[in-house]
Amino acid sequence: MNNGASATSPHNSFQTHFLDIHEVLPEDEDEEGVIKMEDNKVTSSKKGLQKPIKLRELRRPQRSFNRQVSLETGFSVLGVESKAKDEKKVLRRSGRSFGGFDSANRVGAEARKGDFNIFRTKSTLSKQNSLLPTRKEKEMETQRAEGATGLNEPVNKSVPVGRYFDALRGPELDQVKDSEDILLPKDEIWPFLLRFPINCFGICLGLSSQAVLWRALSTSPATKFLHVTPFINLSLWLLALATLISVSITYLLKCIHYFEAVKREYFHPVRVNFFFAPWVVCMFLAIGLPPMLEPAKLHPAIWCAFMGPYFFLELKIYGQWLSGGKRRLCKVANPSSHLSVVGNFVGAILASKVGWIEAAKFLWSIGFAHYIVVFVTLYQRLPTSEALPKELHPVYSMFIAAPSAASIAWGSIYSEFDGCSRTCFFIALFLYISLVVRINFFTGFRFSVAWWSYTFPMTTASVATIKYAEQVPSVLSKGLALCLSFMSSTMVSVLFVSTLLHALCWKTLFPNDLAIAITKKRLVKEKKPFKKAYDIKRWTKQALTKNNSGDKEFNGENKVV
């Protein structure tokens, strides 16, 4: 305790001692404090005597609080100190962020902006090399450690796959549900690299597949009557190449500066499949090379350079499907999983073009085996699988891509569109028709980069139809090839214009990528309402009534025995 200064009056025969008492928090559990107590009694003027000050040594407990026990309710009410401790454990939701992370970072009246460094490459090392934190920041760190346990853990560790399905919604699981928390503020514009998702390679897929389609339209005997100029193929090929280069450079910068965000996308059950997309685009560009630029024979090194990374990545993903665990196929299967399969068929087409027929057969067999597994898993909907939200229906068009590419690859390997090729083509055609008649699946969604998922499967089906029309020339087959090609090109044109408008005019193409900022666990739980006194009384009466009835039954049984 702190002793106040004593004031004495020379004119009076008595002294008055003023005492200011302040609580001093102990620095250690075993610390013994010496408390000096002074008697504040006023000495009698008649006696002129002053009582001696008594000194006592007391061992203070670590914490002191008032405890009031209500005999009526049986509940205890703690003092202010325990309430303050409970308040520290509550992760409050902030208006600045979608969850409570931003509010936890505020010290006093100083509101810090979103700490985007948590997703930077080697963010832990940069934090260690930063300036020493102040006392207030240390207190806030302690509060976050108590009240928001696990905030930093999701950044460095993988998020469980079920968490993505629980916390996200949308056509590509890219929107956070209203009841969830995120690690970054929602109302601030994030850095551009953090807002640039991996599924932007879907744009490259759509344009490169269009280059393959228009090459087929300009060179196929079945479409000679159209007199398609090869310059369309050349312009589309150059556009696809420029788009691939720009998207690849941008995402490479994201890998350099925000590698933690890239890791989040890799563990995302939908976006992990788009890591196959850059290599599929490269193979499409090699297949759709304009005739005026194409050499007599492609070098096998081109196939090795594009198919090698794809093959090693699918070894990793297929191994997770096969070995089980949290990322087994029945847990993560979604229509975008076809992207990890269709590359085998595209690689088989390119292998046949470079003259490696056996390698093409090898890839075709791998792709077909895993396509059957993915197809059955998505059709069967095992009880152990994560339930896909309704918003994932638009990317169901991915069902068309694998059988269409399989039919083209088989015909390229054996130089004939025979029975196996036609079987795969008819499967793709049936799936195409079954999706077209359910047009309501594709309505009611805001524009996003995910819409490019329509174009790639539709274009592949159009190329397969052209190959079929070459083997079975008829008005029906040629008309079907022309119709599907027109639909595919129209879709690509509309999406390309819409993408330019959203990117350049409206600036809405790349909103904040909330999907990468979800927490590993749901931090804020709904608080149960506090039971009032009369509710507790009623609950106590019910409990006593049950106990009395139980005793009566027990006594009755004893009497019977």
UniProtKB/TrEMBL annotation:
Membrane topology: Multi-pass membrane protein
Classification via InterPro entries: SLAC/SLAH, SLAC1/Mae1/Ssu1/TehA, Voltage-dep_anion_channel_sf
GO BP: any one term: intracellular monoatomic ion homeostasis
The keyword Cell membrane is assigned to this record: yes
Cellular component annotations (GO), alphabetically ordered: endomembrane system; plasma membrane
Ranges for region Disordered: 129-152
Superkingdom, natural source: Eukaryota
One Pfam entry name: SLAC1
Annotated GO MF terms: voltage-gated monoatomic anion channel activity
Subcellular localization, as worded in the UniProt entry: Cell membrane
Biased composition (Basic and acidic residues): 134-144
Residues spanning the membrane: 192-214, 234-253, 274-292, 298-318, 362-382, 394-413, 425-445, 451-469, 481-504
Keywords tagged on the record: Cell membrane, Ion transport, Membrane, Transmembrane, Transmembrane helix, Transport
Entry similarity comment: Belongs to the SLAC1 S-type anion channel family.
Protein name: Guard cell S-type anion channel SLAC1
Species of origin: Gossypium gossypioides (Mexican cotton)
